[in-house]
Amino acid sequence: MNLATSDIVPEWAPDPSVLPGWFVDAMAVPREEGFVTVDGVSMHYFRWGNSAAPPVLMTHGFLSHARCFAFVAPFLARDYHVIAYDLSGMGDSDVRPNCDMAARGREMIGVAEALGLLDHDQKPIVAAHSFGSAVALNALELAPATFGGAVICDMMVLRPSELRRYWGDGRPSPGSGDPHRPHRRHPDFLSARERYVLSPPQPVGEPFLMDYMAYHALRREGTDWTWKFSPAVFERDNSHRLWLDIGPRLVSAPGRKAIIHGEKSQLFTPDSHQYLRELGGKDIPIIAVPEARHHLMLDQPLAFIAALRAVIEEWSKGV
Questions:
Q1: Integer Cα distance of 56 and 54 in angstroms
Q2: Domain ranges, ordered by start, for the chain
Q3: Once rounded to an integer, what is the mean pLDDT over residues 287-306?
Q4: Which ranges of the chain would DSSP assign to H, the alpha helix?
Q5: Which residues of 36-72 are buried (b: 16+ CB within 10 A; e: fewer)?
Q6: Cβ distance 12 to 215 under 8 Å?
Q7: Cα–Cα dist 48/34, whole Å
Q8: In angstroms, how far is the first alpha carbon of the chain from the final one?
Q9: Which of 22, 38, 40, 217 is deepest in the core (most CB within 10 A)?
Q10: Average pLDDT over the chain, rounded to whole?
């Protein structure tokens, strides 16, 4: 695939020349797009790099899609075999019935196996954002010997008192929603685009990436536009308990872990850093990306890429 045919679309970027060179170059890196069946469910993925290289597996946050790494993974493709996939019920992957977090952990293991990432001498390193990081923790817990480590990218880690205060301000829990409420339909892309917002709300450092993410979060149904994700994902993924327990689970999960977060994130704060140290996570590297918030790949993509690449390179070399 190339930029002109797969990612530049009239609805959001009629002139590729207005885009920054690093993005155009990243999108020009060859990639494979396809589907693999994991426990009976069709899973959508992208692949970059040489399958003989050390493997890296990437996934996204809640209600997002794998293209949040589509302009990140190419910077790893020279040295690594990189897969980014859509969680079931999101992006272009099918819905997995009764999909709780344990099922999502098994799904991550299944994707890695189905795409050959477990055949390499080096174990795959996982890089996941937000909700996807909680999925990665489940995978580490289920199969401690399968992965070479997990890079946790701005997952919500707040001590319980701070988390309750956060929710008490009227903010919804990640994953909250009505599984029985159908999507609203929009007559055109621009009206649908106006409804695309980030959670938690924030400005972004690279606004064109918002348009890119919004376009690929939508699909056409006849002449209307609606969201790709299925409301069914709210059925099993909306537990407050998940986030109340996430700090201790992060510290106790087997294997190597590193944290990359936005310096201005509401979901991983300086107190989060202290909280993890108090829980015993003093050996977990924590890297703050300056001027970035929760959606750090939209705020400071190149700084995020540099941090991510540094962690993966250190682990891959066995340092």
A1: 7
A2: 3-316
A3: 97
A4: 3-6, 21-28, 101-114, 131-142, 160-168, 189-193, 207-217, 240-244, 246-252, 270-278, 296-299, 301-316
A5: bebeebebbbbbbbeeebbbbbbbbbbbbbbbbbbbb
A6: yes
A7: 12
A8: 35
A9: 38
A10: 90
Instruction: Provide the token pair at 187.
Output: 């007559």
Amino acid at 266: Q
What are residue 83's DSSP bridge partners?
A: 47, 57
Q: 296: pLDDT confidence band, cut at 50, 70 and 90?
A: very high
Beta carbons within 8 Å of 116's beta carbon, 6+ residues apart:
51
Packing angle, helices 131-142 and 101-114, rounded to 10: 80
- Range 3-316 classified under CATH 3.40.50.1820: yes
Look up residue 301 and give its amino acid: P
CA distance 212 to 121: 36
Encoded amino acid at 127, one letter? A
Q: What angle do CA 196, 8, 37 make, to 5 degrees?
A: 75
Q: 150, 140 in Cβ contact below 8 A?
A: yes
